[in-house]
Amino acid sequence: MAMKAPASSNSYLLLAPLALLLLAAVVFLLPSLNGARVGSDGLGVLCARRSAGAEDYTVAAPAAATAKEEEEEEKPELSLLVGVLTMPKRYERRDIVRLAYALQPAAARARVDVRFVFCRVTDPVDAQLVALEAMRHGDVVVLDGCEENMNHGKTHAYLSSVPRLFASAPYDYVMKTDDDTYLRVAALADELRGKPRDDVYLGYGYAMGGHPMPFMHGMGYVVSWDVARWVSTAEEILARNDTEGPEDLMVGKWLNLAGRGRNRYDLKPRMYDLSWDMDNFRPDTVAVHMLKDNRRWAAAFSYFNVTAGIKLHHLSP
Ligand SMILES: *[C@@H]1O[C@H](CO)[C@@H](O)[C@H](O)[C@H]1NC(C)=O
Ligand SMILES: *[C@@H]1O[C@H](CO)[C@@H](O)[C@H](O)[C@H]1NC(C)=O
73 vs 37, 68, 124, 130, 228, CA distance in Å? Predict the structure, then answer.
């Protein structure tokens, strides 16, 4: 392919887990959102050694799965890492977002892993509480190369860290999204399925200066793994201080100046902002953004029938 990134990385970023969990880079891993594992079978069994790197984990099949079922399980056609950039204090939101992902229909023939991405957790209370979440849910990534922020390099720290973090089991694509976006993973996987695996930059194209999509809106965008690897080695980004500024615009700038991410796909109108009146949901949604309070999350769950058929019974009449 045209876009081979250098194989080795001299990234300046150190990536480590919560200070609490010491030395080695640890990623807490959840089973992929694939196959039938996320519905009735539950989350499977997570076997992760705390002292191990990201590569050292296995997800055991649920005990009930028979050999035959495993045989029938189709090989993934694509793999996607979804990073939800969030901040330590947003516990309630994270709870909701975590459930929103866990209760979705699985994406067919795709390996999709969702991680909540933090910069260094400096507050000692948050460090304890986020550590608990990591222990319980196994879906936390803490970047050691940044302070918590949105427009001062967090996206750069994320995109440039994942190629190394997941070097032994790379994904085809890596996504950056936020905790006010409801992403419908199966719909996104279907979009990606027929796309190239290289040099991809996909999202809500933000038209500007006569160009249809010089950058993708920060609600959620996908780059192929080669693009993330390029970001991790592109010293020019740092030399220009191009990690400072609106993160979505800056990602577009890095790629445009370097001629990367040339396979661009605009998923408008299937990615959109929810209106003030919450009346613009669409059945073919890939991602809806601006879910900034519980009421708006509730509207999304209702519209997408997430809780349809579930009755909450009162204990007394
Ligand atoms: C980048 O930022 C640093 C620190 O703010 C500054 O010293 C340097 O001159 C900047 N470089 C460029 C190319 O703007
Ligand atoms: C939700 O369920 C209703 C009733 O079955 C159906 O008409 C509607 O299309 C569903 N909505 C979505 C987004 O799937």
Answer: 11, 9, 43, 34, 29
Q: How many residues are listed for the chain in this entry?
A: 317
Q: What's the DSSP call for residue 195?
A: S
- Return the best residue to mutate from 241, 242, 244, 257 for the ligand 1 pocket (most ligand atoms within 8 A of CB): 241
Atom of ligand 1 nearest to the CA of 241: 1
| pLDDT per residue as tens digits for the range 135-166 | 999 999 999 888 776 678 999 999 999 999 99
| 66-80, 131-145, 206-220: range with lowest mean pLDDT | 66-80
Assess contact for 52 and 26: CB atoms under 8 A: yes
Continuous H helices in the chain:
67-72, 91-102, 124-137, 154-165, 185-193, 225-233, 235-239, 247-258, 294-303
Task: Assign domain 76-303 to its CATH architecture.
Answer: Alpha-Beta Complex (3.90)
Q: Examine the pLDDT at 91 and tell me if it is beyond 60.
A: yes
CA 304 – ligand 2 centroid, Å: 7
Residue 66 is predicted with a pLDDT of: 52
- Using CA positions, which residue lies closest to atom 7 of ligand 2? 305
What the block records as the tokens of 13 is 């970023």
